Amino acid sequence: MTAAFLLFSRNRMALAGGVILFIVLLLALAVPLLPLADPDVTNTANRFRPPFSDGALLGTDHLGRDLLSRLLWGTRLSLAVGFAAATIAATIGAAIGVVAGFYGGRLDNIIMRGVDMLMAFPYILLALAIVAALGPGLLNALIAVAAVNVPFFARNIRGITVGLAHKEFVDAARLSGLSRPQIILTEILPNVLPVIVIAMSTTIGWMILETAGLSFLGLGSQPPQADLGSMLGEARAALISHPHTSVVPGVMILIIVMSINLLGDGIRDALDPRLKSGALSRPMAATRVKREGPVPEPTLDGILTLEGLKTEFHVGTRRLRAVGGVSLAVRPGECLGIIGESGSGKSVTALSVTGLVASPPGVITGGAVRYRGEDLIGAPYERLRAVRGGEIAYIFQDPLATLHPLYRVGDQLVEAIQAHQNLGRKEASAKAVELLRDVRIPNPERRIANYPHEMSGGMRQRVGIAMALANDPEVIIADEPTTALDVTVQAQILSLLDDLRRSRDLAIVFITHDFGVVAQLCDRVAVMYAGKVVEEGPTRSVLEAPRHPYTARLIACVPELGGGRRRLEAIPGLPPPVDRLPDGCAFADRCAKVRPVCREGDIPLAPQGDRAVRCLFPEEHPSREAAE
Ligand code: ADP
Ligand code: MG
């Protein structure tokens, strides 16, 4: 909620609308207390007095009534009717929508066809017909306006409810034995409430206008009672000779509707869950780069090298240091593993390579990423676009989320191929079949016509890999590609990646949180903690003799098949939040061997034998060292 409020308060227009509406509301509420003339007392001797005349600040109308007083009383009435109509329409409409959407089936059909019938009539005509049937009068106008808006709410809310009705959390509520009305109240309603508020805030302005329209036609408020619409209607005859009589209520309608709409838009932007994640601020095509130091000299050797890469998220005044100076290198035909707990900055490191971190809030604040010696940080967008999916390709964790659900996998492969290669449709299709065969999908000619949901998780991930291979990349960055798969499928995918790397001389950066996977596939491994590499070296020796206490604890967490009974050591505590990293070692608070010096100043990643370790008191392995 506070996040929504922050987002809202940064929207100047919405804030202005809110302030204006607040003033108008305050005035409307205070009308009975203000020293105003009686709005309904006529005085024909004083007809059409201009604004700023004695005793009538806004002048008088055709019956000599005080316009200021009528305006304020009229505003009060119009606002009350508008809000009442919106509340009634939203309540009834949402109730209909939730019931129809949740129960579904025949009930849904009957209700929604009824709603469709209401929607088939032009809006204002329907309102007119209702008022004609009920008789003129403000209350009947209110009913008419509310009634014609019910279908809008019902349709909207039904759509949302249908989407929610079979979500896992609703099924879970069913399993826990809640009755359907209880589920509606506790599970569905809280989820549709923001949508109702949004729909209301954007339609109140409309409803005030519609009520004013009915009053303007003489079907709403009846003389002498003033509302904004009837004031306009009565002023119509004197529009040319005494324009102030229509300008006064007209301007008020404009102010009210404008302020409500601005406020409504602001509320929608702040509450809409789809916009909350920062989508409102439209991410840039490539991550913003603001290097705070010199570009590091190339010292590492490899086809892809990261040198002192720093990526931060600037959220408000907070700086989340997700990646704090990572240096890595991978050579052709080599597989480099990156391992670490969730949140240690593995994905952000991988995405920074080709500027895929969303900006805002992401900013690359330092370091270099060199592909064949060319620095990609701050490279022109066109260059990055050519590299992405071309020379450097990605494989992500969840292929169901990265494949488009409505296109056949073959078409998606063709699209990936044509994005980088100037091939005709037929050649691209042939290549797509070839790719599916390469990733060992049986029957590729038939499989290219499948939709993603028609494939199993393992098959989909193979398609993901095929897509990464589409443009013969030199480097593949795989971000937890097997985490969503079961172990047997995982083993197949790993052996496939291993074969591909050997046959195509691919450099693979393989991100995972599973040491078993690292052991199977990777030549070298880098262990990340709180945005930094804490240990890096050949996989075998890191696994057999971890030097950093964190690595040692991570390995101790892994159960071993056939290894007999032993205590599995969970690491106590949590990693530090990346916007409040401590001085010195980030692991200090969870380390059994911590000493005061560990908390003073930066600890460098120091070379030790065949690897590099960021620790002042690394673990010792006497037997192993003796053997060396
Ligand atoms: P993982 O190692 O699990 O892949 P990530 O690289 O995704 O971790 O995240 C590293 C850190 O960056 C986490 O602390 C996360 O909270 C933060 N982070 C990631 N994306 C964003 C974002 N869009 N805005 C703010 N913080 C983010
Ligand atoms: Mg991740």
From TrEMBL:
One of its GO terms (cellular component) is plasma membrane. One of its GO terms (molecular function) is ATP binding. Gene3D superfamilies: MetI-like, P-loop containing nucleotide triphosphate hydrolases. Keywords: ATP-binding, Cell membrane, Membrane, Nucleotide-binding, Transmembrane, Transmembrane helix, Transport. This is Peptide ABC transporter permease. Belongs to the binding-protein-dependent transport system permease family. Pfam families: ABC_tran, BPD_transp_1, oligo_HPY, OppC_N. The chain crosses the membrane at residues 77-103, 188-209, 246-264. It is found in: Cell inner membrane; Cell membrane. GO terms for biological process: peptide transport; transmembrane transport. SUPFAM superfamilies: MetI-like, P-loop containing nucleoside triphosphate hydrolases. It is a peripheral membrane protein; Multi-pass membrane protein. The keyword Phosphoprotein does not apply. The keyword Nucleus does not apply.
